[in-house]
């Protein structure tokens, strides 16, 4: 008999045409919103949450594009309305316009290039104001990204089905990628299983009972274990019957970040195809001759076959 069945945790229980995973590998929900949205707020939140490389790429491309637009405006007005061009080593009108736009947008004002005429002065004044606002927004984004506590938990690429001492267990492993101290770590695993109900296929949800769902200190890896008994929703799941099971393990991790004195969260998921059978994890840490415990994050996902 399966116990620990729970209500929909908020991901929806209707199957319809959904075939993708509920939680993506990066922890985001596989949800596409349409209809009324607040574009400016959504864009600001998107810029805060994207990875650093993409964030700087967006800033550089945006900066280049805006300056190029103003450079084309100055080019259309005529470079003769830009004073000091004789000090440049180029006669290319586009480059002259771009250099002038660059200096105006950043409010650097080296003193060599300057606007001549009413139209050019008006446009340059507007560009300088826009540049001031854009740099203020960029500063706010950088501060938000640096000051916002965020978990960087690495999950093993696959979960394992392990048999040990006549017991069957589901295991996956996690570790902290950051060097900060996490305490009071908690984890919850919900199994989202596709089943046939009175009205057709639906998603049912089950809480997986874990060997430990809470640890006080989290300096090393944590192997999360669920023992498969007759009461488990995974009872009967093995290498021969895996095609009959269609499920996703929805994982929520929470811990207290001692650096920021705030709680951090992270999500992850495994689908039934990401379960390996007859394997065990390779130890991820060891003691060196100096008495230090060495934790190798590169071994979080490493496992070997059990003979």
Automatic annotation (TrEMBL):
The entry's keywords: Ion channel, Ion transport, Membrane, Potassium, Potassium transport, Transmembrane, Transmembrane helix, Transport, Voltage-gated channel
Residue ranges of every copy of the Inward rectifier potassium channel C-terminal domain listed in the record: 153-306
Protein name from the UniProt record: Ion channel
Transmembrane residue ranges: 52-75, 95-116, 122-143
Domain of life, source organism: Bacteria
Domain Potassium channel: 69-145
Topology of the protein relative to the lipid bilayer: Multi-pass membrane protein
SUPFAM superfamilies reported for this sequence: E set domains, Voltage-gated potassium channels
Pfam families (UniProt xref): Ion_trans_2, IRK_C
Primary location class: membrane
Location in or out of the cell: Membrane
């Amino acid at each position: 008999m399966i116990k620990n069945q729970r209500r929909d945790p908020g991901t929806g229980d209707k199957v319809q045409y959904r075939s993708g995973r509920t939680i993506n590998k990066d922890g985001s929900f596989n949800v596409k919103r349409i209809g009324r949205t607040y574009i400016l707020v959504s864009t600001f939140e998107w810029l805060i949450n994207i990875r650093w490389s993409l964030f700087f790429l967006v800033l550089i491309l945006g900066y280049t594009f805006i300056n190029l637009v103003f450079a084309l405006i100055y080019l259309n007005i005529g470079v003769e309305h830009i004073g000091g061009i004789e000090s440049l080593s180029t006669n290319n009108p586009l480059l002259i316009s771009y250099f002038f736009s660059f200096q105006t947008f950043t409010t650097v004002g080296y003193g060599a290039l300057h606007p001549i005429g009413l139209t050019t002065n008006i446009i340059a004044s507007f560009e300088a104001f826009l540049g001031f606002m854009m740099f203020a927004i960029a500063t706010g984004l950088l501060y938000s990204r640096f000051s916002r506590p965020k978990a960087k938990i690495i999950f093993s690429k696959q979960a394992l089905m392990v048999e040990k001492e006549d017991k069957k267990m589901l295991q996956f492993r996690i570790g902290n990628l950051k060097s900060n101290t996490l305490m009071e770590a908690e984890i919850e695993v919900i199994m989202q299983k596709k089943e046939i109900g009175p009205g057709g296929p639906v998603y049912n949800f089950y809480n997986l009972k874990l060997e430990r769902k809470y640890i006080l200190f989290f300096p090393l890896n944590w192997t999360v274990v669920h023992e498969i008994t007759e009461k488990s929703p995974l009872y009967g799941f093995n290498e021969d019957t895996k095609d009959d099971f269609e499920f996703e393990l929805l994982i929520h991790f929470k811990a207290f970040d001692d650096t920021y004195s705030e709680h951090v969260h992270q999500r992850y998921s495994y689908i039934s195809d990401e379960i390996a059978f007859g394997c065990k994890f390779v130890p991820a840490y060891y003691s060196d001759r100096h008495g230090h415990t060495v934790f190798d994050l590169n071994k979080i996902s490493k496992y070997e076959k059990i003979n």
